[in-house]
Amino acid sequence: MKAKILETINRIEAPDAAAMDVALSRQAALAKPPGSLGGLEDISVRMAGITGSLFNEINRSCVAVFCADNGVAEEGVSSAPQSVTMAQTVNFARRLTGVGVLAESFGSDLLIVDMGVKHPIPAELYDKVPLWNTRRIIDRKSRPGTDNIAKGPAMSREEALRCIEVGIEMADAVKNAGYDILGIGEMGIGNTTTSAAVLSAITGEGSDATCGKGGGINDKSFVRKKEIIDEVSADWRAKGGLLAVLEEARDQGGSPIDDMVGILASMGGFDICAMVGAFIGAAANKIPVVIDGYISVVAALAAYVIAPKSIGYMFASHKSWEKGYELAVEALGLKPFLELGMRLGEGSGCPIAFQVIKGACDVMRNMATFEEAEINDDYLDEIRKGDCF
Fold first, then answer.
1. Is the pTM here over 0.70, yes or no?
2. Mean of the pLDDT values across residues 155-167?
3. Long-range contacts of residues 83-88, Cβ cutoff 8 Å, at least 24 apart
4. CATH fit for domain 59-356, picks 3.30.450.90, 3.40.50.720, 2.40.30.10, 3.40.50.10210
């Protein structure tokens, strides 16, 4: 199974530097004060690097929502019962959830994937073919939830690899269906615990830095949640975290793939593993891919560890309220362009972010240059020298 992942990683190319240079030159020529569209300018330049084209359009968008339960929920680390994972997975298909309503509002599709939902889903809602019917649920269930990470590994390495491959499969399906952009979301009771554990293992930080209250829990549950995170990530934290280990071993070979897969198998979730694969697959297919909130950004960081070039295709949508988000997004070197106090997950930030990225592309394509607008831009010469803002 690892061969498919390696093949996908090897297909990832760095963004087109020449196209980005052309885009920067056009941004400088557009009829506006230099840099006055801020992050929209950066987005349009990055999009040029991803596609190799100066002018881009976002007409078809899709959010992939990976759903799975987590055995650690039996430790009382979540306020909601695991039946909610099943109910919301069904409601994604009905477009009754936060991401479902936002996707409908902005004209995005959903790709709903059952990676390991514990409670039974009505058989008539299942499909085997990705994007054959976007109101069905794709059946890629590994088993009904992971094992409890407080008692042992969440899953086997083989299961982790298989879930990563499912994520790659979904990214391939999105590419083949002709979508212009992909967002990555999730649903799974207990997955803020698994995500925090993975983040602690990657960064070396303890639960004080990586763990929040998720969907809301009492103080007793919060203490237990932090205990579990610190216990399962202790060995990696003692080494300073995977990122520090890789930095030290940069010139000595080693395998970040094996280490990262080991962490995911030990303390991750079926949903997170599939999300990792989707980020990698999007990059291999040259699809811009949008990070949602906390679980999504941890999966993006894990994908970056496995496939560093994948970072060139990622956009951070919104700043999650969840503790640990900033740690992960800073490790990626990305900056979210929305701050709405959101902490829902599901991929709910992605349909909004798609519209921001679409706007950035439309400005690049449709805004007049000074020459086209018949404006003499000599008055900007002093500003272009710098120190005027």
1. yes
2. 98
3. 83/119, 84/189, 85/117, 85/118, 85/119, 85/187, 85/188, 85/189, 86/117, 86/118, 86/119, 86/120, 86/121, 88/187, 88/346
4. 3.40.50.10210
